[in-house]
Amino acid sequence: MPRQLAYGATITLKNHRTGGGYLHSHWHLYPEGVGARQQQITTYSHKDDNNLWLVKKFDTDAIPAEPELVRHGDLVRLEHTITRRNLHSHKEIAPISKKHYQVTGYG
Predict the structure, then answer these.
(1) What is the domain count for the chain?
(2) Whole-prediction pTM value?
(3) How far apart are CA 28 and CA 11, in angstroms?
(4) Which is more confident, 17 or 3?
(5) Is residue 17 part of a domain?
(6) Is the Cβ–Cβ distance between 95 and 33 less than 8 Å?
(7) Distance (Å, whole) CA 63 – CA 8
(8) 74 contacts 52 by C-beta, under 8 angstroms
(9) CA 19 to CA 61: how far, in whole Å?
């Protein structure tokens, strides 16, 4: 695992607690009646191009020309590399674990 992370890096995120799924998205929307009708964000247990996310500054689409490291306390945005949607959360109940909020791809 790298000790440093730069804006413009392409990353995968993996949950090591509940089965080890990668943060994953694809073109499918949540079905009507399941929270916001936005792009699905899930976990997936296999390596896949749909697991790739681009690290960006929260307030710009520009990627620095020279490497610029993400620092503790920075606000970042994760953009899905294939669909170009941002990782997004809001106060919609999650479709599976009703005690959490829904996460979507948006923007």
Answers:
(1) 1
(2) 0.89
(3) 21
(4) 3
(5) yes
(6) no
(7) 6
(8) no
(9) 33
Residue pLDDT, tens place only, 35-92: 788 999 999 999 999 999 999 999 999 999 999 999 999 999 999 999 999 999 988 8
30 found inside a domain: yes
CB 31 within 8 A of CB 72: no
- Segments forming the whole domain that contains residue 28: 9-106
Pair 85, 103: CB distance under 8 Å:
no
- CATH assignment of the domain containing 102: 2.80.10.50
With residue 18 as reference, give the H or E element that holds it. Answer: none
pLDDT value, residue 95:
80
Token pair 């916001």: residue: 36
Q: Is residue 4 part of a domain?
A: no
Enumerate the β-bridge partners of residue 6. 69
Say if 13 falls within a structural domain.
yes
Residue 42: both structure tokens together: 């899930």
